[in-house]
Design goal:
- 2 copies of one chain form a homodimer.
- Chain A has 232 residues and is α+β, with helices and mostly antiparallel strands.
- Chain A has 2 domains: 144 residues, Jelly Rolls; 80 residues, Arc Repressor Mutant, subunit A, CATH 1.10.10.
- In chain A, 46% of the residues lie in helices and 25% in strands.
- Chain A is built from 9 helices and 12 strands.
- Chain A has a 4-stranded antiparallel β-sheet. Chain A has a 4-stranded antiparallel β-sheet with strand order 2-7-4-5. In chain A, strands 9-10-12-11 form a 4-stranded antiparallel β-sheet.
- In chain A, a hairpin with a 2-residue loop joins strand 11 and strand 12.
- In chain A, helix 1 packs across helix 2, helix 6 crosses helix 7 and helix 6 crosses helix 9.
- The radius of gyration of chain A is 19 Å and the shape is globular.
- Chains A and B meet through helix 3, helix 4 and helix 5 of A and helix 3, helix 4 and helix 5 of B.
- Chain A binds a DNA duplex (30 and 30 nucleotides) through helix 8.
DNA sequence: CGGACTTTTGAAGTAATTCAAGGGGAGTGG
DNA sequence: CCACTCCCCTTGAATTACTTCAAAAGTCCG
C-alpha cells in the first residue's frame, strides 16, 4: 500500500503526469528509493549522467562550479521536481552538481530506463519537453535580469522567485521554507554575500523582510515587488 | 525535386533527424515556406506561440526585451536550427522575439501540427528533448559566466562561442559569418557597447582580433582562449 | 554628398567588490 | 550547564572595474 501511495504521487509529478495507472505501476516497480542527509551530494558535476531522480520530500540545490571554485546556484528543487535532466536529454555527464539542502527522500531511475520509457510513450517524452521548456524559460529570464538589472533588483527578484516556489504563509509574512544563507542568495543573484547582507539589512530596517541565520521571511511582498520592478 | 531536396534537408535537422523518409515527406507537405529580409521580425515577443520554424538559410537572432526597452540576445540561430521553442513546449506566448539578421529562408509549421507529430512519433519528441537539453546546457553556462566572470572574459567567451557556431576559416583567422555590431556583442555579454569597443580595440592592438563595421575576425584563437580562461 | 548608423576615445562618476575585523548563534563536548 | 568552536552574519573603509556622459570621427548607402 505504500507502493500505491507512490503510484499516486508519481501520477502528480511533472514527469509522469497523465500516464495511465498500469504504466505508473510499471514505472514504480522500476524505481529505487534513496535518502540523503542535509549536505550530501546527490549528483556530482562531471559524473556520467546515468540517473534521474524525482524529489519526494526535502529540497535540493542544483549548482555549477567553475575550475577555480566559484559556484552558481542554478535552481532549487522541491517535491515533485526532477533532478538530473542531463540523463533525460541524453547528455554524457552532469553539467552541475545537485546537493541536498534538507534531509531528502528521492525516487530514482536509470537513464536507460527513462529513455526507453520516453521512446515507448510519447506522452512522457512530451512531459519532458514541457518541463525542459519551463526550465529554459526560467533561466532565460534570469539571464536577462543578470544582464540588465542592478544588484538590489536582482536580489529582490531572486527572493520573490524563491518565495513563489517555496514560500509558506505565516503571520509574519511569506517564509522561505528551507535554510538559505546570504552566500546562497549571492550565488543566485550574481553578487557577493556582503552586498546581500547590506541589502537585507536595509530592507529589514524598512520592515520589508525579516531575516535570521539562514532564514528569510518576506514581510511586505508588495514593497519587495516594487523594488524588483523599479527602473535602475 | 525541390521538394525532394527539402526532405533530405529536413532529415538532417536536429528536429527531424532519424525520421523515416515517408514521414519526412508528410512533414514536408504540412510545412510552409517563408522568407524574411534582414531586420524583419520573425516572431514577436508576447504573441501567441502558434508557429515553429526551421532555418533553411540565413541567420536569426533570439532576443528578450524588458519593459523599459533593454534588450538581451539569447542566441543566434543558423541553418538547421529551430526557432519558436515555446510552440514546441506548449507555451502560451513567445517569451522573446526572433529577428532576421540576414535575408532568411525558413520552413514553418503550426504549433498544433508539430505537437501532433510529437504525440504520434516519440522519436521526434525525443529529438525535441535533446535539442532543449542542449539549449539548457548552453544557457546554464552563460548564466555562470555572467555571474562569475569579469567583462573581458565574458566578451572573449561570447566571441569564441560565436566563432564556434558561425565561424568560417579564412587566411586572416576565423571570421564570424554574419554582421555583428559592438552593441550586439554587448547585449550578449551583459555590458555596454563602449566597453566592448574598448576591449576589441585593445585586442586588435595585440593582433588577437581584426574588426570592422559589424565584422569580427578572430586572428589568434589561442590567445583569445587564454583570455577567456585566465582567472579574474 | 548628405544623413543615418556605427564606432572610438576621453573624462567623470559610481555601484559594487574587495579587504579587514569583529560579533553572535547554534551545536558539541567536557 | 558552561565553554569552546565553527559558521554565519554585519559593518566600515578602501579600491576598482565598469558605466555613464559627451563629443567626434568613420563608414556605408541612397
Amino acid at each position: 500500500m505504500e507502493d500505491q501511495a507512490d503510484v499516486e504521487m508519481l501520477g502528480r509529478t511533472e514527469l509522469f503526469r497523465g500516464a495511465p495507472v498500469d504504466l505508473l505501476r510499471d514505472i514504480q516497480r522500476a524505481a529505487f528509493r534513496k535518502r540523503f542527509s542535509a549536505g550530501d551530494t546527490v549528483l556530482q558535476q562531471g559524473d556520467a549522467a546515468a540517473t534521474v531522480y524525482i524529489v519526494v520530500a526535502g529540497r535540493l540545490r542544483a549548482t555549477q562550479t567553475t575550475l577555480d571554485g566559484q559556484q552558481v546556484i542554478i535552481r532549487y528543487l522541491g517535491p515533485g521536481e526532477v533532478a538530473g535532466y542531463a540523463a533525460l536529454a541524453g547528455g554524457e555527464t552532469f553539467p552541475g552538481a545537485v546537493i541536498a539542502v534538507d534531509d531528502c527522500h528521492l525516487i530514482g531511475w536509470s537513464a536507460t530506463a527513462i529513455q526507453e520509457l520516453m521512446a515507448r510513450h510519447a506522452g512522457i517524452a512530451i512531459n519532458v519537453v514541457k518541463l525542459l521548456g519551463a526550465r529554459y524559460l526560467d533561466i532565460q529570464v534570469r539571464l536577462r535580469e543578470l544582464s540588465t538589472e542592478k544588484v538590489e533588483r536582482r536580489i529582490a527578484h531572486t527572493i520573490l522567485r524563491l518565495a513563489q516556489q517555496a514560500g509558506r504563509r505565516t503571520v509574519r509574512g511569506i517564509e522561505i521554507v528551507f535554510p538559505l544563507s546570504r552566500q546562497d542568495l549571492a550565488e543566485m543573484s550574481g553578487t557577493t554575500l556582503h552586498t546581500v547582507s547590506r541589502t537585507l539589512s536595509a530592507w529589514e530596517e524598512r520592515g520589508i523582510v525579516a531575516c535570521g541565520r539562514r532564514r528569510v521571511v518576506v514581510a511586505k511582498p508588495p514593497l519587495l515587488e516594487a523594488i524588483a520592478e523599479e527602473p535602475d
